[in-house]
Structure of DUF4230 domain-containing protein:
Amino acid sequence: MDFLTTVLLLLVGAGGGVALANALRTRAGVTDIRRDSVLLLERIEKVCKVVMAEGYFSEIYNYQDQKKILYLLNDPKKAMIIAKSKVLVGFDFAKVRFRLPESGEKKLIIESFPEPEVLSIDTDYKFYDIQAGYLNHFNSADYTKILDDAKQAMNERALQSDLPKIANNQIQYMMYQLASSMGWQLQLPEADQRRLDALKASAEEPAPAHKQLPGGS
């Protein structure tokens, strides 16, 4: 038996052994699952963002894509996604513009204050009723677009809710209290100052007296 024949017999024997092992493993119901992950840190940035309001939202998002086969027959695919999100709304203090008066008095003048913004959206997605067409199948790009659209819709819904108003009231009153505790005055832009004055007046209103019920002591 020459060398080449010996090598071929060894390869055939090894292949048969692997095939037999795979068959036995399949019959025994043993599954070999391997998961690998790679964490890449792109960059670290210094931020000065403050969360002032937190909201929880649920949304049902319907996705449908129509595709024509040979420009005649419709071949639709559709999916329903239920998204539950925790939305944090706050401010980026790097956008605040302020100055101190030249007189030297303890007064902080805010010339420009940023609008509240969505700082983060933590969303849990669940797919239901996924129906692919005969030739119009779902691919990774479709799922990415669905999740991006659902997240964008959640972002718009959060900005249309009461979260921005609550965040505005919170930050302005907090800044006022902090400045007052240090003996400083706070001056905001005109519209914000009116809102702050209304908040201060509401907070300083005495609680309504309880009326005594007839026959009480």
